[in-house]
């Protein structure tokens, strides 16, 4: 009976959190964009193209993975009274590294993402995983949780960015998809297009999940 209860809670017979469950839940059952609706500021702001969306998603995933591992490693040394400030300091360190890395790789991409790279520090997804998961589990499950949640965030951003770029510019990663006569839907690359596309994906995702 105890083993069945542990499996139902996502644990194996030794009481450890199941690695596959920690990874898969972020991609599907607890997807940060389509289920938890977290981090909507970058989701709506930088998803006007597939390239920007993918870059922001991967940057967030990197910060999430590194901060989760470090928080998990130091969970027994960080005082409870200073845990939130410590988490923010850890996250800000990796955001700074990511900011400089993107700038070194592509100045144009860095300009396109703008201040939203720095705003990863206050992304509620990253802080919530540090507080709710990494601070209570060992390094490997925390890393898998981060990769799952980060992968789900990348998926959500990419789905929005791909649709908005295809309909708004008629391109995909800068490559033209339609004949010269195609009239792009300019509204899709404007802020309103982000809300329309997000609503459409939420409808599709939830409908698919119910079925």
- The Cα radius of gyration reads 19 Å
Order of helices and strands: HHHHHHHHEEH
Q: Supply the helix-strand structural class.
A: mainly alpha
What is the overall number of helices? 9
Uncertain ranges: 1-17
What percent of the residues sit in helical stretches (DSSP H or I)?
55-70%
For the sheet with most strands, the description reads: 2 strands, antiparallel
- Categorize the overall geometry: globular
Distance, first to last CA: 30 Å
* DSSP strand tally: 2
Q: Assembly type of the shown chains? A: single chain
Instruction: Give the mean pLDDT.
Output: 86
Beta content: under 5%
Q: What strand line-up does the widest sheet have?
A: 1-2
The gist of it:
The chain is mainly α and 211 residues long.
Question: Can you describe what's shown?
Answer:
There is one protein chain. The chain is mainly α and 211 residues long. It has a domain at 18-157. The chain has helices at 2-8, 19-27, 40-45, 50-73, 83-105, 107-113, 124-132, 139-169, 191-210; strands at 171-172, 175-176. Residues 1-17 have low confidence and may be disordered.
Topology:
Blueprint: H1 2-8, H2 19-27, H3 40-45, H4 50-73, H5 83-105, H6 107-113, H7 124-132, H8 139-169, E1 171-172, E2 175-176, H9 191-210
Antiparallel strand pairs: 1-2
Helix pairs in contact: 2-8, 4-5, 4-7, 4-8, 5-6, 5-7, 8-9
Keywords, separated by commas or semicolons:
211 residues; mainly alpha; two-stranded antiparallel ribbon; 9 helices; 2% strand; disordered N terminus
């Amino acid at each position: 009976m105890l083993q069945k209860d542990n499996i139902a809670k996502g644990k194996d017979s030794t009481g450890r959190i199941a690695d596959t469950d920690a990874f898969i839940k972020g991609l599907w059952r607890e997807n940060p964009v389509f289920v938890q609706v977290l981090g909507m500021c970058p989701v709506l702001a930088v998803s006007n193209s597939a390239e920007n969306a993918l870059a922001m998603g991967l940057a967030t995933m990197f910060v999430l993975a590194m901060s989760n591992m470090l928080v998990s490693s130091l969970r027994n040394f960080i005082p409870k009274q200073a845990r939130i400030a410590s988490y923010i300091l850890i996250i800000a360190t990796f955001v700074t590294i990511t900011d400089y890395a993107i700038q070194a790789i592509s100045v144009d991409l860095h300009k396109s993402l703008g201040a939203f790279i720095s705003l990863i520090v206050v992304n509620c997804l990253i802080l919530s995983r540090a507080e709710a998961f990494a601070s209570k589990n060992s390094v490997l499950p925390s890393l898998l949780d981060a990769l799952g949640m980060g992968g789900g965030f990348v998926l959500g951003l990419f789905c929005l960015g791909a649709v908005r770029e295809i309909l708004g510019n008629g391109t995909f990663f800068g490559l033209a998809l339609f004949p010269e006569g195609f009239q792009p839907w300019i509204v899709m690359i404007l802020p309103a297009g982000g809300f329309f596309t997000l609503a459409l994906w939420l409808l599709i995702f939830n409908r698919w999940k119910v079925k």
